[in-house]
Amino acid sequence: MFNKCCELLAKEKIKIAFFESASAGYLAYRFSLSSYSGDILIGSLVSYDLRVKENTLHISEELIEKYTAESMQVTVEMINKGKELLHADLYVACTGLLKKGGSETPEKPVGTFF
């Protein structure tokens, strides 16, 4: 599936960039394995730690405190801020709850992915 996505992106001359948290670079890694990676992959930033979100992507502490680092709002902001760092046609960002002890709630249990 990844290679087919890469093939379609290359055919349309679409460049892609990733801003990953919970996936820790896995998506960019998988796209890099394709023979089309040199044609489509701009780069990736892994912001697994909050400090990377705040200091590199410049996501406000207030936004993170209001919604948590694992939220749709922060995931969207990762793209908005990431566009200043990497210039592509298509952006992918993801955050999520992988283990207990984070920001889980009954509405947002462990395993939730944005």
UniProtKB/TrEMBL annotation:
Record-linked SUPFAM superfamilies: CinA-like
- Output the InterPro entries linked to this UniProt entry: CinA-like_C, CinA_C
What domain of life does the UniProt record list for this protein's source? Bacteria
Q: Name one Pfam family in it.
A: CinA
Domain (CinA C-terminal) ranges: 4-113
What protein name does the entry list?
A: Damage-inducible protein CinA
The organism that produces this protein has a lineage beginning with: Bacteria, Pseudomonadati, Pseudomonadota, Gammaproteobacteria, Moraxellales
